[in-house]
Structure formats: structure tokens, C-alpha cells
Amino acid sequence: AERLAGEPLAWEPLADEDAALLSAQIVRARLSLPGLGQVPRRLRGQPLRLPPSSLFGRVTHVSLPYAQLTAIPAALLVPELCLLVSLELSYNAIKNLPDADDAWSSLVSLTALDLSHNLLKVVPAGLSRLAELRTLNLRSNHIRGWEACLASALRGLARLTILDLRYNARLATADERLIRATLPAAVLG
Fold first, then answer.
1. Taking a C-beta distance cutoff of 8 angstroms, is the pair 33, 61 a contact?
2. Contact yes or no for 35/12 (Cβ under 8 A)
3. pLDDT given for residue 96 in this prediction
């Protein structure tokens, strides 16, 4: 318990009695679990267990790179994270994003979403519910085309100014022209 003071949260299963100690640490503003690719051998392949969502009330940043995620944990799409400003889920194995229209609606303050270096092929229309989103990083995924995979999600993101789609080999030059026409204020990475 002492090691939690002032240090980033380490990845390990949490006992119920640790929740009170943890709340004083992560509720300050940031939940960060760096270096999950380096977890001890005994923990590899175990599901990531996040603290109870009731502790997320004041969390503004979540960073889970290299967490071996294949999907976005439901615990990250809860109303308790209404103050979340940035969500980094880069370098995982996420293939699909939640598609329900209301799946993203609780993240009302989110301005930056980093899904780079995953296995995404499609960006669902539900992502357009992120009304405050200004930065979207989709670099190095498997996105295949503007109309089929991106258009409905991005058309609703009026505040989006930075969109990184680099290294999605299946996006053609014609797709880039359509993106620029739809999002004239966006800087393409």
C-alpha cells in the first residue's frame, strides 16, 4: 500500500481493501498503466482488472498502451468517467470498437482519443457522439476506405482538428480528398 503514494499505478489484480488506498491516488487526476507489455510472467494472459468505476469520478486521463487489449474495457465507457479528457489505447490488439450509439455518450469531456497501432478496420458511427473530440489518432491500423469505414463516424465530429490516419495502407488518395472535403479544418497527420 505504501508504494502507491506518488507512483504510477502498477498492473496487478487489486484486493477489495486496496480500493480505499487507491482512490486517494488515482482520483487526483490520472490513471496510467504504462509498460503492461513487461508484466511478470505469472500475470501474462490474465485479464486486466481496473479499479471499481466508482473511483473514477475525478480521473481526467487514462493511458493503457501495450496492455494487450483486444477490446475497449466496458469500465472505460461508464458515466463515472465524464471528466475524462484523454484516452490512450495505442499499441494493443483492438479489432472492434463499441458500435452502439450510446456506448461513447458518457465520455462527454473527451478531447483526445489515441487508438493508433491497433487492428481496427472500421470506425463505428457511434464515435460521432464524442462532441468535444479534437484529436483522433488512428495511425497504423487496417482502415480500408472513407465511405465504408470512416465517414459516418467522422462527419459528426465538428470540433475535430487533428486526425492521424497515416499508415492505413488501404486508404487511397481519393479517400484523402473526401476526408479533406468533409473535415476542412482537420490537419491530417
1. no
2. no
3. 93
CA distance 121 to 154: 15
pLDDT value, residue 6: 41
Please report which confidence band the pLDDT of residue 27 belongs to, taking 50, 70 and 90 as the band edges: very low
Least confident of 15-19, 137-141, 169-173: 15-19
- Three-state DSSP class for residue 87: strand
- Residue 111: how many CB atoms within 10 A of its CB? 18
Query: What's the per-residue H, E or C state across 117-151?
Result: CCCCCCCCHHHHHCCCCCEEECCCCCCCCHHHHHH
User: Residue 73: which CATH number?
Assistant: 3.80.10.10
* Helical segments of the chain, H only: 18-26, 151-154, 173-182
Q: Tell me, rounded to whole angstroms, the distance of Cα 141 from its chain centroid.
A: 14
Domain of 71 in residue numbering reads as: 2-188
R_g (Cα) of the chain, nearest Å? 17
Q: Please tell me the total count of domains within the chain.
A: 1
Taking residue 98's Cβ as centre, other Cβ atoms within 10 Å add up to 16
Cβ partners under 8 Å of residue 175, min gap 6: 145, 146, 150
Q: Which residue has the cell 496510467?
A: 32
Quick one: DSSP state of residue 84? -
Q: How many other CB atoms sit within 10 Å of the CB of residue 38?
A: 9
